[in-house]
Amino acid sequence: MEHISLRSVLFGLFLLIVQTTGDVTRPNFVLIMVDDLGIGDVGCYGNDTIRTPNIDRLALDGVKLTQHIAAAPLCTPSRAAFLTGRYALRSGFGSTGSVQVLLFLGGSGGLAPNETTFAKVLQKQGYATGLIGKWHLGVNCKSRNDHCHHPNNHGFDYYYGIPFTYFNDCKPGEGKDILAEQQAALWDLSMLLGLGLVTLVLLKVSGLLEVSGKLLVFLTLLCLLGFTVWFVPLELVRVWNCIVMRNEEVVEQPMEPDALPEKLVSEAEQFIERNQNRPFLLFLSLAHVHAPLFVSKDFVGKSKHGLYGDNVEEMDAAVGRMVQLIERLDLADHTLMYFTSDHGGHLEDSDERGQRGGWNGIYRGGKAMGGWEGGIRVPGLFHWTGRLPAGRVVNEPTSLMDIFPTVVKLAGGELPQDRLLDGHDLMPLLEGRTERSEHEFMFHYCGIYLNAVRWRPPNSQSVFKVHYFTPNFSPPGAVGCYDTKMCMCHGEFVTHHDPPLVFDLSRDAGESAPLSPAIDQRYAEVLRRVQEAVEEHRRTLSPVEGQLSWRNILWKPWLQPCCGTFPFCSCSENTLTERAGEGGKRGLFHEVQ
Length: 593
Prior knowledge:
Number of helices: 15
CATH architecture of the domain at 26-167 and 243-439 and 550-558: 3-Layer(aba) Sandwich
Strand content: 15-25%
CATH topology of the domain at 26-167 and 243-439 and 550-558: Alkaline Phosphatase, subunit A
């Protein structure tokens, strides 16, 4: 009996050691994604006027990807692809018209419950999982509290942030983003109907025209109904969309924009501090640098690039606070940190105060411009003390979708076997165990339409890009769609190319000089190989419900998240809560050198 007991004790100790070792070998993850940042806005990618010392340090002490590609040039589809490791089309985030992202929190579209995010996999591996910041992938499906699309239903134990996005409607005086042209047209129509009704009443009163009283009542009710149907969702959109949630509870409605940056970073710090003794995954999805721009007293007027530059430098300080905390808690050797943007800068976003969107460096195009490099080539920085080589630069094609398999494998999880993943494990590239990307082909979508294809031929240093159509820039000569504020993917808004445009990105990263089919022998081979890849890729696509259909995106009052009793939704959170330690004393952002 004593012998058996001793064996049991030894076996128990062995299991404890294995479990403890397993936790030690499983890294933490701090994934930082910013919104609408141009690759040319960051110092380590060539900017010499905006100061980004904390982001630059990640590159200096870690690995920098120079051809890191978003799966879409807009927020909602790009983020869906990032979280699932799959092209957004596979999740139903392909648009056929002018609406290319979710428009209302009270809509029924979003990331479907049957999708698998890397957070779901890590949650099953025992990780503490948290999402702080922007979501923009829906909340409810059929009722106000089903939360079928909510982050808590997609693998995140803890959520704090804005379930929609930060946009002009959230800040009084900044104008409108949501269906602005339609709002103006409906207003004009309402005024016209109202004027017509008043005219009929005056004619009846004056005796110049016989008008039935029942007809006037009917027309009055019709005018009121029509006015209410568009006025309530669109004129009150700040109340409906600009909210803050903690898990499934609305804690601020509408939100206070100026307080948001500090709240998000403070929440991220607290999440790390709470979970420092166990494996954790933090996805910090910052509201910077999407317009309207923040005006923070510690940063306004500090940069050489106006308010936009101030916002970039404030965002850099947020990154610095994350790095500083990881080091202070002695977690640097045990934490993989990642920095990126969801897509390129918004070139058309400007007002009388100047440019409010980002700079995409030498790359052509920007946000919402299909497959042009400026809209999809984003920063990609990895930092892991003692594991990743300092100063390594990777020039191979990589994707935001690669984060899924990279994180899952490092955490000891299993990749889903019931669906096709489009991402690849990045660790061999990051560590220098291989010099070639597993992405021979990458497919660039504009809505549901295959816009362009990238090909990295084996045994070649070239990277070719084939464009089947391109957005029509306006006014003529511009690089962007300034007349419509954002480029579209369909109909008269694009030009189809026959033969397609072909660029060699290894020699012409700015996509300024397409190859000539008449004199370049590679042209025919590129088209042939790309077409074969397209046909093979299309065979992997299956029909799914379109999350961006009008039926799914239009506002439904019974789905609207609400703080209080609908429709009287209103609540406020303390803007500067006291926090333990020095964090509560320093107030807003401080610069981290």
